[in-house]
Amino acid sequence: MLQPTEPLSLESAATQETSFRELAHWAIGIVRRQLLVIALIGALGTSLGVFYVRIAPSTYTAESRIAIDPRRVQLFPKATFSEGQIDGPALDSETVLAQSEPVVLSVVNSLGLAKDPEFLKSPGVLGALLGFASHLFSLVKRTKPLSESEATKVAVTVLSKNLWVFRVGGSYNLSIQYRSANPERAVQIANAIVEAYMAKQLEVKYDPTKRATQWLEERIKELNEKQKVAERLVVDFKRNNNVVTADGRLMNEQLVADLNSQLSLTKQRVSEAKARVERIKAVIREVEMGRVDAGTVADTLTKQTGATLADTLNSTVATQLRTRYMELVNREASWSRKYGAKHAAVVQLRDQIREIEGSFLEELKRLGDTYLNTYEVVKLEEQDLEKRFDDAVSRSQPITQAQITLLDLESNAKNLRTMYDDFRQRYADSLQQQSFPIADASITARAALPLEKSGPKTALILVMAAAGGLGFGVAVGFLRELMDGSFYTKEQVERALQTPCIAVVPSLKSDNSYNGPTLMGNPKPMLSSDRGLGAGLNDQRTISRGPDICWAVLNSPFCRFAEGIRSIKLAVDLNRSAVNSKKVIGFISSLPHEGKSTIAASLALLMAQASARVILIDCDLRNPSLSRRLAPNADHGILEVTAGRTTLKNALWTDQSTNLTFLPAVTNNPRICSSDILSADATGKLFENLRSRYDYVLVDLTPLMPIVDARATTAFVDCYVCVIEWGRTTTDAVKHAFRDAHNISENMLGIVLNKADINRLRRYYPTGESYYRNKHYGQYGFTE
What we know:
By secondary structure, this protein is α/β, with parallel strands linked by helices. The chain is built from 26 helices and 16 strands. It is elongated, with a radius of gyration of 64 Å.
């Protein structure tokens, strides 16, 4: 079934808001934790800015402006090398030219800057420091003076570093600025740069024009010689091949053209004559077959043969016959209607009509004979012209080849003449341009004496130095935070190790002036009870009570340290309620000195104070520090019990105030086979016995990384509590320790962050002040 989209969108928005809030809290937390580093680096950056402002010399900037005009007047519009429209790249080229080494060198030489002390040292603060160092060095050892060329190079370098040329906005104006500690010198150099640039621009334009003029002069001489040779070849070829021309054409070529024109006209006449003959024959056949009568012969001939034949039929004879024919036809028609078709007069009229038709037919035949004779004459004329045309074409072949060669020679001579004339014109223009070169730039504003200094800008430098120092400090702070792989919060532990963090125990320090601890940096806490203080120092097998931190759970039951131990006890009790068999609890750490022994002893005292049957066992056979603290005079312990050299009862130590039982470990020499002892059957039987006699069996074990003894205790230890030193032990160290101890990590009850600095801890939470310094905590008896 589909779910509504609105709750999903609200949930997504809430998730994004939470992620953003967490990111903001994370960044703010880093800044809070690294605030000292950020402040120190920011202060250092600001100090450097102040130092720079104090030692940097005051400088003044003079500015001159020039305009590059692409619409300048062209006195010689047909110059050899025309200047095109100035665009962005062209302006960039002018900018480079204005600050090029030839321009700068010209200014250095003209003003004698190579001898000016200002231009014989490096500019800026670095130059000042180097100058000061060189001055000190010169006091010890005299330095060799610079040669003239070296001094010139140094002056050019100094001038170039203090010179700026840039385009003003999107215009054709260039701004030339020079910075110097002497305002008069700055004005002088800025104006000198403009003058040198103008001179260099004219030189840049003059040199190519001069080289082009020389090249054109040589090219003109070469073309003149070639053109003369080409014309001489044309004349010699005409004379040698007897080629005569009239009106620009060869005589034979003219004859072939005339014959071709006449032949075309004759062919047209032959075609027309043949068409008239065929048409007149067709008409005669139709008349003889009776398809047309004499009255319509003229109309038929006009449609079929055209106007010429019709005009022929309009001759006197044809006209008379046609007129007579029409009169008889009309009369015959009239009389037929009046007297009848068989009347004698009508019949006589019809006979006259047939006679006229026969006469008209005879006239047509005579006309056809005339057309036939004309056709034969024109045909003979055509044959004669064709013969003459073929003879002329056959005679013109050799002359045509000579004509091709002649045309090629004449074309070559003409091209050379054209090139010669063009180069002469360019040469003349080049001479004019060379005699009067025009610069592309004009000075629009000369440098004036600056009224105020241009540097250093104190406010800007200090702001930039402070911002840079703070920014670098923030970067260093974030880098330190990212490089720090230690544990600080429960969330870090659970996220990195996938194991619950059951307590965060604050750091305490012992005080030898009295039998009780104090919180670090706070007044001495009130002791809940002073019973047993000093007891056991001389009593046989009584736990020694002194200025040890573990006794804070009894002496200061309302301190944060005691509350942290109660968190561990609660986690143990909840675990026992789930699985009753988990009585044996081992305390481990990744590295030494993380406080696992103190946590184990404090938890044992807290449990014993609650009337539980508790035994604390020191199984750190390599370094039994807990035994040295609680039973310094013990001469036998767990090793003697498992070896059968003494009974368990004779090895136990007891605290009279809490009834806590302690089984120490006594080792005069380091035990090489300590892991074998812990994994022995005798050790397992001992813990089975203790499991049945006590409610809690707390075991202080060795660290995981340097020693393997803790891995041998999985046979009799039900669960483990790992103690990690707050802010010291890294994530990699803990993961490396657990990587080789799979059985221990599988039976892990939880992690304890020990030795936490409360003042620093609250920086890892966005509202750490309310978490760790809430005034309402005092209502429940908390003491700081």
